Amino acid sequence: MSIEVRVPNLPESVADATLVAWHKQPGDAVARDENLVDLETDKVVLEVPAPATGVLTEVRMAQGATVTSGQILALIEAGASAAPKSETAQAKLSPAAKRVALEHNLDPSAVSGSGRDGRVSKTDVAHYLAEKAAAPAAAAKIAPTAVKGAPAAVKGAPAAAVQSAPAPAAAPPAAVARTARKDQRVPMTRLRARIAERMVQAQATQALLTSFNEVDLQAVNELRARYKADFEKRHGVKLGFMSFFAKACVEALKKFPVVNASMEGGDVVYHEYFDVGVAVSTDRGLIVPILRDVDQLDFADIEKSVAAYAARARSGSITIEELTGGTFTITNGGVFGSLLSTPIVNAPQSAILGMHKIQDRPVAVEGQIVIRPMMYVALTYDHRLIDGREAVQFLVTVKQCLEDPARLVLGV
Description:
There is one protein chain. The chain is an alpha+beta fold. The chain has three domains: about 1-85, CATH 2.40.50.100; about 90-130, Dihydrolipoamide Transferase; about 200-410, Chloramphenicol Acetyltransferase (2-Layer Sandwich). The protein is about 25% helix and about 25% strand. The protein has helices spanning about 85-90, 95-105, 120-135, 190-205, 220-235, 240-255, 300-315, 390-405, 405-410, and strands spanning about 1-5, 15-20, 30, 35-40, 45-50, 55-60, 65, 70-80, 210-215, 260-265, 265-270, 275-280, 280, 285, 290, 330, 350-355, 360-365, 370-380. The strands form five sheets. Strands 9, 12, 15, 16, 17, 18 and 19 form a seven-stranded mixed β-sheet that branches. Strands 1-8-6-3 form a four-stranded antiparallel β-sheet, with no helix packed on it. The chain starts with a strand and ends with a helix.
């Protein structure tokens, strides 16, 4: 019996999706709930599972096609059997890596994965293709040319009058052989296109301004060093920096609610809850999962949520609902080594906090020069709504909470 594989119902905010990769080909055996195809929206990659066990008999939508809810993608002959999956089909590839492999007609089993359990990333595929394309450049060889000697001496002329011929000019250097210079043109992913659209929209519609401060993280480091083993043993997750920053931001948002607000037409909407987005970098681009009601979460809840969201975001299994909403965002360029930056607001939010690299620097503490782990923090905000005074005091509150973490417990 033939069973149709259809596009799942897309959320109301998503009109269509792009088919980015088939994981099976006609004639392949499939198991119920096994992922058949990846569909990319402007927010997430959706996996379409097989509705039954059998053989994939027909594929109706090619890679790159635009599809809508309910559209037929393929047919499965339920109960039929086929040859076992090949090694290629069993290769562990991220969605982005699968897309690049298909574009270049590449056997994924030939690529060594650098990820967990040998998972192959887009970077692994790109490195493999680059190494495969590179060939040693052979320098062009020019045969040696005989140089004629000086003319014979004139008969009867004094020996001193005879001069040798000038040395011939040096031959020009052989042209260096070069590999072919190529341009590769690939369609922009829907996520990257959406990111580009939102960033340009934010800069075009908001009056963005950035204020800076610096934070001494000595106290936070001491707390983490003192309790990290007990924390991980009890909660099963490491005590990182994000929980401290999320809690500090919530305390600052409570004091300056306009930073947690947004503009809708001629109205200012003050959000009386704290849904904090945490920017996560993936092979497909930057996405921002939302931590709901952060004021009601403890440190362990925040660390567990951040770790789970990051893992699912990079595997492509995060849902659209988990990326929707948010009243404030935190982004951490420090994990990549950034010392200072001006992050862009994630509209329709009005502000974003940028964390940066922790660097030991000499600072003055009570009249003494000491070395402390310092971090620059940046708050980019919509100046139409938030005044400089509020932005600066917001950063000062974050700084105070992090330099004296007892404030986060006492709420002062």
